[in-house]
């Protein structure tokens, strides 16, 4: 079944908006989220596939309302919380 | 104003997350700083531009690049293995009759090592949904009007496979050095939303 992120060919998203001279990150927190994700994958806390999955299983309304790096933040929060739950549950 | 409030609320959320993860020993400040330094200083469209300039200057390199980009990149000191996992790279060449453009319809897959972090429009639902349905109209909005007879291929990137466009060499550049040629190459040219 297709998830909310599978938008190829859909209509209704409006024109493509291009920001002139766009910075790599729009706020310091975006840079921190970017770095956290890479560091956590490198450490093996979760995999890139798990990270993508955590974004793609966001409820559609939350996904569409979130900015790009807010989705990343959500995924990191979910995956690191799930990890903590698993440890407390004695799975490791 | 509400935007500022939202932004500071998110920033506080990130600080709490970061403090928790550092506290749990999952990351260190030093690691985070090193990641950012690497991406901000190392990954940039200048890399892709160097690849293109070499391909324009050296027919043998161009052939090797189009046949197996991962094997050819080390010739210019680059690699697709520097990130979290090695990605297969396919370089697709524009010709007089054929134009190429990149997208990732599912998320934001992009050859970061060669182009740097992607612009927001590349990650937007508008671009991802439309460029596969009406590429000619989307390219026209970017100012690239392609003649009706010109074929367009849209390459949908994935976790394992990335693409980069090899733009056509501009006319009248026969005397330029490789360094000068690289200066003509833009990020949008490497994505395919502009010609050079």
UniProtKB/TrEMBL annotation, chain A:
Domain Nitrile hydratase beta subunit-like N-terminal: 1-86
Descriptive protein name: Nitrile hydratase beta subunit-like N-terminal domain-containing protein
Listed InterPro entries: CN_hydtase_beta-like_N, CN_hydtase_beta_C, Elect_transpt_acc-like_dom_sf
Organism: Streptomyces nanshensis
Domain of life the protein comes from: Bacteria
From TrEMBL, chain B:
Superkingdom of the organism of origin: Bacteria
Keyword Metal-binding appears in the UniProt entry: yes
Domain Nitrile hydratase alpha/Thiocyanate hydrolase gamma, chain residue ranges per copy: 9-194
Protein keywords: Metal-binding
MF (Gene Ontology): catalytic activity; transition metal ion binding
Name of protein: Nitrile hydratase subunit alpha
